[in-house]
Design a protein that fits this description.
Length: 245
């Protein structure tokens, strides 16, 4: 296991120059976000507290932080699509990519990596803007939700995979997310879970009810687990049992 972990970290360190492709699909953003998240976890682990390898981890993490700042949209978030004719900085961003990016920046800060305060604050603001009054989280980082028709992706049943990561990121960012907001998001997740079930094996993104996509499923469950860990000890077990099922 240690050898496999070391091999993975070596790979990340060697590939921190995550450049934007010239096409519309700019998935380098995901590499920056989860690469930084992984390196920050390593820096925060006792295994590397006094290791000479720590310098390489830190340098690589700093490069990924710089890359994220370079790709941050004018609205403060991150997205993974761009117009082919757009400038190097994409305008579009999603709530869930932005929330995952915010979590990576939080981990980096805790590992002692410098993060520009403006980059951080506007990312927090972007995620906050996506939270809707009914508990849903909009798909896009936008001052208003998409066309809010009955089966819109921005309805609660279409945002089950996004609610958890947004609440978790804002909680970790010390924003105004109390235990009641966390449990409300989890209650919605389990109450309407059948819409994630319906999407789980669909090969075409967003073809299920409320435009749910298969990739929402594991993404949503991972961050639901993270939210449960944020609750007081006595509140965790009932939600954990539902998540196990």
């Amino acid at each position: 296991q240690a050898a496999a972990m070391q091999k993975g970290l070596d790979f990340l360190i060697a590939h921190t120059d995550q450049r934007r492709p010239s096409d519309w699909d700019i998935d380098n953003v995901w590499g920056q976000i989860y690469g930084l998240n992984t390196l920050a976890h390593a820096l925060n682990h006792r295994r590397f507290a006094d290791s000479p390898y720590r310098g390489k981890l830190k340098e690589a993490a700093e490069q990924l932080v710089a890359g994220m700042a370079h790709m941050q949209s004018p609205r403060g978030g991150w997205g993974y699509y761009a117009d082919q004719d757009a400038n190097w900085r994409p305008e579009w961003a999603t709530s869930f990519t932005t929330a995952a990016g915010l979590l990576a920046l939080i981990e980096a800060k805790e590992a002692g990596i410098a993060v520009d305060d403006k980059v951080f604050k506007v990312a927090v603001r972007a995620v906050e803007m996506c939270r809707l009054p009914n508990g849903a989280v909009s798909y896009d980082v936008s001052p208003y939700p998409r066309h809010f028709y009955l089966e819109s992706i921005d309805q609660v049943k279409g945002s089950l995979g996004r609610i958890q990561v947004a609440n978790f990121a804002l909680r970790r960012a010390a924003a105004q997310i109390d235990d009641a907001a966390l449990t409300n998001g989890l209650d919605l997740f389990f109450q309407h879970h059948k819409f994630l079930d319906a999407a789980r094996n669909k090969p075409i993104p967003h073809e299920a009810y409320y435009a749910n996509a298969a990739y929402f499923y594991l993404f949503g469950h991972h961050y639901a687990a993270c939210v449960i860990e944020q609750l007081p000890q006595e509140q965790r077990l009932p939600y954990a049992e539902k998540l196990w099922r």
